[in-house]
Amino acid sequence: MDGNKKNQFNPSANMTAAKLTLIAIAQASTLVLTGFAALAAHQPGLPETQAQKENYVKENMVKVQAAAECYASHHQGRYPTKIDNAFHSYFPFGSYDDETFSTLSCIYNPYTHSKDLPVLGSMKNASQARSQISARILEGATEYSPVENGKGYVIRGGGLKGTIVPIGKCGAQAKTPFILSEDRQLANRANMMAVQWAAESYYEKHDRFPIILDKEFKNCFPCQDIAHRGQGLPLRNAFSKQLEWPIFGKLKSARDARFTPPGDLKPGSIEYNPIDGGKDYAIRAGDVNGKAIMRRKNPRQTLILSRDGEL
After folding, report:
1. Which of 188, 167, 214 is nearest to 267 (CA)?
2. Taking CA atoms, which of 124, 191, 249, 255 is between 20 and 30 Å from 83?
């Protein structure tokens, strides 16, 4: 991977300060998508015991899932169908552009001590993957299988000698493979990040954040469809599967919004709130129950993305 100079991410080459800020915010927002619990569970230093190595593989699987959901948010709900530069650009330290990635985002294999990308699998669905407890893949690898040409995915992890990493250590859990597949809640959060990406892209051109949903703002939305290059596309609602632009809200302060209990919001809708004439913004999303997503599972706080990320 280090030999790929064209696509390797190099902050000092042809990269504006505004672009670096945009990438930094996107990476900070990835913490929202991958979940704080997985990060908190990770112990300092490299894994040594078998249990630590299996947990590390599970964390790698979560990272791949987060990248797949971020990719889908930029491709109107379609998941990656192969392991390539485009998919890689949605891993940590990539730039979410289907091209620019970093060797730093390769996954550390706790068994072989190498850094690799996921391996491509051939699972047809999650049910099939869960039924194959005796199957084997590469030791320590994270396997990504595209389902129905990008409609979904299945992720498995390889443990000692390539055995599939199970959910747990005892009883039925030890006989049940740990499998990740498409997740509507994660897709919803990824859509929030896509709207944030569009707002930050708009800022690069206008030195302020958008205050209305006009053509200029729409054209800042992701579009990797060659037939629509230069023209942003709406996002696919994670629950209704309909294509939708964000709705505009009337929040006045990102900080105050964070410390307010989640209000009513249509499932899967992404609300963009311009603040102080375009100096800031607040983004929230409706969960499956028609309420704004909670912040860190706190029913008295709301998940809000702003120019400072999610603090």
Report:
1. 188
2. 191
Tokens of 211: 């205050």
DSSP 173: G
pLDDT in tens, 275-293: 999 999 999 999 999 999 9
Q: Which two tokens stand for residue 254?
A: 């990102």
Q: Are 259 and 278 in contact (CB under 8 A)?
A: no
Is residue 150 within 8 Å of residue 79, measured between CB atoms? yes
pTM over 0.70: yes
- For residues 140 and 57, the answer to whether their CB atoms sit within 8 Å is yes
Q: Which residues contact 269 (CB under 8 A, 6 or more apart)?
A: 237, 244, 246, 247, 285, 286
Contacts 24+ apart (CB under 8 A), 200-203: 200/21, 200/22, 200/25, 200/26, 200/307, 201/22, 203/18, 203/22
